[in-house]
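[Structure tokenization] protein backbone as discrete codes

[Encoding] learned vocabulary of local backbone shapes

[Begin record] amino acids and matching fold tokens:

___
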Amino acid sequence: MAWDETKAKARRNALVRGLPNLSEILRASLITRYTSCGKPGCKCMSGEKHGPSHALSVTVAPGKTRQLYVRREDLETVRMQVRNYDKLWRAIVQISDINLELLRAKSAKAPPATKRPRSR
């Protein structure tokens, strides 16, 4: 199937229109934990663990990660913000790919560069 510049631009514009609100993004991973307390006779000792509890894992520098406890009342907002970040990142990659293809197509159409004499 032939590559269509108009369709590529329309796809790029659709991606831009579908971007999430940039004030509602969060670059992190949401972790759900179930824990054992270790007390003899507790339900967690027979397999029914305590939880869930939720935390954000954020990379703050290469090899450095921090975790932040997420309160139950903030959980849905945090989930939405993490999803928005993922959606934004995927869109950026797709938009970049489209722009690269547009540039390649433009370069292929361009006449060869003419040599200009050197000035002395």
Summary: The first strand starts at residue 29 and ends at 35. The mean pLDDT is 90. The helical segments are 5-17, 75-109. Residues 5-108 form one domain.
